[in-house]
Amino acid sequence: MLKIAYDKFYAHPLPEGHRFPMVKYELIPGQLLHEGLISEENLFVPGECPEYIILLTHTSNYWQHLRHLTLPPGEVRRIGFPLSAQLVDREIRIAEGTIDGCHYAFEHGVAFNVAGGTHHAGTHWGEGFCLLNDQAIAANYLLNNSLASRILIIDLDVHQGNGTAQIFENEPRVYTFSMHGANNFPFRKERSDKDIALPDYTGNEKYLALLTSALTAIINQHKPDFIFYLAGVDVLQTDKLGKLGMTIEGCKTRDRFVLEQCALKGIPVQISMGGGYSPNIKDIVEAHCNTYRIANDIYC
After folding, report:
1. Number of independent structural domains in the chain
2. What is the rounded CA–CA span in Å between residue 208 and residue 185?
3. Where are the beta strands (DSSP E) in the chain?
4. Which of 47, 112, 202, 248 suits 7 as a labelling partner, its CA being 20 to 30 A distant?
């Protein structure tokens, strides 16, 4: 059964001026329900991630400032949102949704978080609308509980997963792979285990050829027993914050390739949806829903 972490809380606490395209968090499950691809049984509401799990990834100093809303103004500006208790609670729930998704992935092969992909948050900072790094928190949770021993994080958002790279820079059990726009945010990149920095306007053919070659080699060499996939759709040519040239069909082919690799090798995969900022919300929802449709084809 396809299990999907979803909470209306994901979208509502965001401040005015930041709610588009965050309405996608409601529109995606709504569209899947409308199509009959899922039922309410497929959706689960995460609780709050416990503090001791958060502290496996983020420093105590950063976390205490975050939870007590005492971050210095410069650090709040780096996050990009006015800091509030509701936003912190939102990120705690997103992190728990990703952890819960790992358990469902062990059982069903794949699981989703409608939100998540908060890959700009490092051990001691938030950045780019990311306060806590959900997939890094979940990866450390798996390692700490001996639920996985070799983890691969596939980050195909248009922006480099700089926080994820920094968190695991000295952790050989976690292989970080980021394929992103070379000339896009963050302008100070960290070093992943494998970075592919793409020139502006990279289209389907080049993107998919590079991905196919790199990911096949990484899986064969690292031999992960769990995979996290950040399936951002800000790689689309229509995206106002991206600079690549992919079509919705190309993005769909990307997702199919990644999920087929996971399924063929029997590696559980947790998927967080990541970015998507096309001016037409229909483009964002369609591209994200394709990821679910493909998973349904492969796993159900």
Report:
1. 1
2. 22
3. 3-5, 43-44, 110-113, 151-155, 174-181, 194-198, 226-230, 269-272
4. 248
Average pLDDT of the chain to the nearest whole number:
95
Domain that holds residue 210: 3-299
Q: Using one digit for the tens of pLDDT, what is the confidence trace for 100-122? A: 999 999 999 999 999 999 999 99
- Which residues have CB under 8 Å from 141's CB, separation 6+? 53, 56, 99, 102, 147
Q: Would you give the distance in Å from CA 178 to the centre of its chain?
A: 11
The whole-angstrom separation of Cα 282 and Cα 280 is 5
Global confidence as pTM? 0.96
For 156-173, how does the pLDDT look when each residue is reduced to its tens digit (9 = 90+)? 999 999 999 999 999 999
AA letter at 242: G
56's CB contacts (< 8 A; 6+ apart) are 137, 140, 141, 144
Contact 75, 66 (CB under 8 A): no
Q: Residue 216: count other Cβ atoms within 10 Å of its Cβ.
A: 12
Look up the CATH number of the domain holding residue 141.
Answer: 3.40.800.20
Q: What are the structure tokens assigned to 143, written together? A: 């390692």
Q: How is the beta sheet containing 110-113 ordered, strand by strand?
A: 43-44, 3-5, 110-113, 269-272, 226-230, 151-155, 174-181, 194-198
